[in-house]
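Open question from group meeting: does this chain pack into something compact, or does most of it stay loose? Before anyone orders reagents, we agreed to write out a predicted structure and look at it together. Recording both the input and the output here so the notebook holds the full record.
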Amino acid sequence: VQLVESGGGLVQAGGSLTLSCAASGSTFSISAMGWYRQAPGNQRELVATITSGGDNTNYADSVKGRFTVSRNNAKNTMYLQMNSLKPEDTAVYYCNAQETIASGTYLYYWGQGTQVTVSS
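Structure tokens returned:
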């Protein structure tokens, strides 16, 4: 499984961005997916996750009500709509995918990351 993020950039506080994560390879075995971010000097943290069917999502408290995760399985793509951006959202955003190998056994994949910078 290969993951490629896009859509990052520079935006003013209060603005919006939409990130995309395109998956290729053994996409039929991908189950849950998620977005993580890492700011300089900080550990990588969970932003949002979404189940294989897109029916269940989970968000970090810091982004609830502002970010929305979605996926289009026909296009093998996951999205992160980010609204009301704040300077503290500045980070490299990474896409993560869970591949089901067998019952209870998973592999995890990461994209290369895309930079999001929010200016005040």
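Observations to bring back to the group:
The CA atoms of residues 57 and 89 lie 19 Å apart.
The chain has no helices and eleven strands.
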